[in-house]
Batch of 2 targets.
Target 1
Amino acid sequence: MSLKDPYAVLGVSRDASADDLRTAYRKLARQYHPDVNPDNPEAEEKFKEASQAYAVLSDDEKRARFDQTGSIDEVPNQDFFQNVDFSDLFEAFMGGFGTSGRASRSAGRNGEDLRAEVTLELLDVLTGVEKPINYRRMARCSVCSGSGAAHGTQPETCGTCKGQGMVTRVQDTFIGSIRTSTTCPTCGGAGKQIKSPCENCKGRGLEVVDADISVSVPPGIEDGMTLRVSGRGSDGVGAGAPGDLYVVVHVKQDARFIRNGADVHTDLDLTFPQVALGDKVKLRGLTDELDVNVKAGTQPGHEFRFKGEGLPRVHGGARGSLFARVRVNVPSKVTDDVAELLRKYAEMTGGPIPKGEEGGFLGTLFGKKKK
Ligand SMILES: [Zn+2]
Ligand SMILES: [Zn+2]
């Protein structure tokens, strides 16, 4: 069997160090491994080539022989993988794909992430606010300090994994045997076993506690946004890290202002004489009283815009706008004198003269007059 130049296959120079070789091989292995390229004979071939090249060059004797003779023909077929450390390969994979691997180093279980909710008034959004949150979390047991072992006893090293938290499985495949590691089924990755469990936590190492913290909600927050409070979830077990607390923010509907992102909308109530003749009025904004210059002939539905009088944005920048929409108020009840005036107004402006509602007070009024 003749092989390609192993240096060319790995893409390294003749004086490549052991580290260079390993790096080059890991890169190719990640790229061409059959698990990543199912049913791809080309990738499979490339993976074999790279593995063969690495097997030759990572062995000093074989590498020297190749350097002298340019030949590796005498390397027996089944010998290629003898010198390849497949735990290396496994690591290369785990490093590349981010699965598991974490448990082996932490020898514990990370704490759960938790969720809490807070409700804000719209005006809280303007300035931001500190909100107290009461919730329940799993904390390290106060009796056993999280070890899970009864008072005066210690957790013992797990017999299955010898305290490693991980067990290694060897699998025979066409490219040789591959070692894979999984969390120890006996101790769940903790590396320790509890013979006499703590009564308070039943050996779990955790107990339920009430927690109260204060979260600072930034200005501009929108309904449904989530704040992450790092490390305030449940505690982990063993060397596991605590989880995070996710705080879902709700913003209450306001009676006067309708929110649209950083903008707010409100109504401006005016009377018919005000819109007809024009006026200067005050409008209560989110923070200040605003001056509104109502021009003569302003129509219902007209919108006044006040830039910078809306809400702040959660990522910073200028405040949004406040929009005030004109509503023209119609009196629900008028006196005889006013009714007379309105009728006169209708006559003078050439509009239809109201007959008044059927059987109503105006109808009666005009009805009387016609007699
Ligand atoms: Zn305990
Ligand atoms: Zn174990």
Note: The CA atoms of residues 142 and 207 lie 8 Å apart.
Target 2
Amino acid sequence: MSRRPGATAPTAEGAWAALATVRGRQDPYPLYEAIRSEGQAVRIGPGKLVVVGYEECDRALRDTRLHVQDAARYDAGTPGWREHSSLRAFTSSMLYSNPPDHTRLRTVAGFAFTPPRIRELRSAIEEMTERLLDRMAALGTAGSAVDLIAEFASRLPVAVISTMLGFPEQDQVWFREMASAIAVSTDGFRDAAALERADRAMDEMTAYFAHLADRRRRDPHDDLVTHLVRTHDDDPERLGHDELMGTLMVLLTAGFETTSFLIGHGALLALEQPVLAERLRTEPDFVTGYVEEILRFEPPVHVTSRWAAADTELAGTAVPAGTRLTLILAAANRDARRFADPGRFDPDRSGNRPLSFGAGGHFCLGAPLARLEAQIALPRLFARFPGLAATEPPLYRDRWVVRGLDTFPVAVTA
Ligand code: HEM
């Protein structure tokens, strides 16, 4: 790591390099501050801008001249990417598309994620939560440790999205394994073996989706898969075959680990400060601010990227066409110009609007759903297990883009 002579903090360039290491990823926040010490948008290497400021990230996300990496862009800059099915499938989804395709793809699925539609799911999510808590109680009866992530935080999001899409319940454990393997493809090209596993998982999932789509053609249900298959069959111009697969894939995977990490962090922070657990149990309105502050303080998505399709500028810095921008949302959420005392976890913070779900055209489609799941799961968890306690320190998954707890063993002594 390169350091300035006599200084203890790395340079922005050194901090950037450290983010690619296991050690750097374990605690990236000091590295974000090292980048910030050289500016809110720092040029690192030719044609590369790393953005850590809140206002700068917000503006970049809303700037229509800054595009997401789509298939054409991969073709131009990443030879061989089409050999990886895990990358190919995502480029047929809204997340990796720019207008006009993006607008079309987002509209096709968007109707199911509006705040009123999501509010209708409340009682179903409450029931799923209770069932999972029953299961945790059964697993922990003999005093044995239960992994909060594997048994609760990751099961709830998969159960919820599977129900919306219309996936059979018995396939959910398999989905979690596949979705975890696939998620690596969004974390860059660093690990060739992991990318290969992601490709294999993607192939299996695509075959599964194709089979399910055929079943729904023959036997339609009142679910999102049936709706999407019908949209494709009625008008393939509106939703092509690969786009149907890409949409299913992104809906299943985008909200799984992210929401699981949100719930995992929410549980960890409340166990570290028991007063928070007590407030979750006793103050019904407390959870709204609590979830927003977890999102700010420990966002499940640390970083996203854009590239400049045309010349633009960002807070006075010229951004020539072709520049690649890395937008560190987790650093923006700790920008002292926007958040007072940003390193302090404060669920009573007013005007808390973190960038954890992005902003602009690609603003997270599932934000109302993720919020609702966490708002239900966390108070229920602490109400059901007032004696909840960590039996070992949690372990972070070694990833940077989507970051959170891999395992968190707890005792559920009621
Ligand atoms: C705490 C949980 C979640 C976090 C932190 C999160 C974060 C994000 C972020 C930052 C983006 C924007 C990426 C960008 O602009 O480059 C995004 C997009 C997206 N998210 Fe989420 N997400 C979460 C949960 C969900 C859930 C539950 C779903 C759906 C089931 C979902 C579906 C999507 C989709 C479809 C997009 C793409 C939107 C578009 O490109 O127009 N997310 N998410």
Note: Residues 1-38 form one domain.
